[in-house]
Write a structure and sequence with these properties.
This protein is mostly helical. It contains 18 helices and two strands.
Amino acid sequence: MGLGDTKSISVLQAEATTEGTRSLKRVLTATNLVMLGIGAIIGAGIFVLTGQAAASNAGNGVVFSFTFAFVGCLLAGLCYAEFASIVPIAGSAYTYAYATLGELVAWIIGWDLMLEYLFGASTVGVGWSGYFNDLMRETGVHLPAAFTQAPLAWNEAAAHFDRVPGGIVNLPAFLLVMFVTTLLVIGIKESARFNNVIVFVKVAIVLLVIGFGFMYVNPANWHPFIAKNTGEFGHFGWSGVARGAAVVFFAYIGFDAVSTAAQEAKNPQRDLPIGMLGSLVICTVLYVLMSLVLTGLAPYRQLGVPHPVAYALEQIPQLAWLRMFTNIGAIAGLASVVLVMLLGQSRVFYSMARDGLLPAAFGRVHPRFRTPYVTTIVTGTAAAVISAIFPIGILGELVSIGTLLAFVLVCAGVIVLRVRRPDLPRPFRTPFVPVVPILGILICLGLMASLPGRTWIRLIIWMAIGLVVYFLYSRSHSKLRDEVPAIGLAAAD
């Protein structure tokens, strides 16, 4: 069996239509999928990363950072939509890579998706904790600092972790992730209902902040709109805008996570593209408007805090009444992001286990709830521990580079499949192939290049560990060799 052998499209499609106690339950509608996308997208970007990217990288130009990131996501999203309509099965980019680029690349992207989903859930858990603590202070409850902050902080200049005085564990972040994990084990329909309610609440609050915030914007805070470059690449100026785009790219991965729920959608060929692209467009409009409001209410250099929206509202006494609502919206909104990220991670591991690349236990489906409960519990617990001890900055950059790599491979996969299998029915077709996927690849690679060198080193180390796992375990346990004697797209289908 070669490293470039692909999984048969017909086998994947057969798996997608299989019913039984070992399969996932198809209960999600197009509305559910759009809401899942909004649930994942509206959260970290608005409530956490807007301030981080403005204060550290892009300044007021964070508006353009979100716009650039949107273009890259839109191009990748069009490629995701084509794959999702062809192969409506759990696993997202991992499954798409297995069908087009071979098992080794599929493993690499599956391992890479851990950076996207597992660390994504952890990052948002840390941001949620910041807003939760702020809400507690508003109500007169002061939680002990030892149990509300991570024990470690990343020192970028010295390239090592510093011990946070008095910090023991970020307990609110840990408890949130474990609660969401429990909800996902109980059922996908229950999780979707929970998400729908949260999305309604947080979008309503975001619109309140935008509407009333514009009334008190100080235009002087927007000058200069593109701050002068400090001389160090990635800090303000247009290079800062580019690096800011790479950082806030993390905020858009909701539409990607929607594709992992393909095996639980009622009509995936039609509804998955609607869910991914619809949520992407809606959320981008809200991101741009919120960026303008935040940088107009407070100088961008002051927004590098875990709760930038609440901080910006503090600067305007007339908006004090909104702060409580904002904290509630952030707490609810970030919780839904954690839910969708953990849903995505557990479904990717579920698919990898069914292919034999991970231990079979990860592919077990709960006989009552029809959810991949083992992988949900394992990944949820890991995310909870990570969120309890690591700072938000280092986690956010890891998530961004992992997401961008996944998008590059999906865009490349569309080109490969168009060449190898032009005859396949495609309910949704990516327009202007190969132009769209090539532009998607170039933009994503450009955003990756704007991330700091240490983030690349962490990615390389992470991928090296993944390759060791693949060659020591996954390759010898792969079920691909048992499917069809003549493996390959042309022969197998």
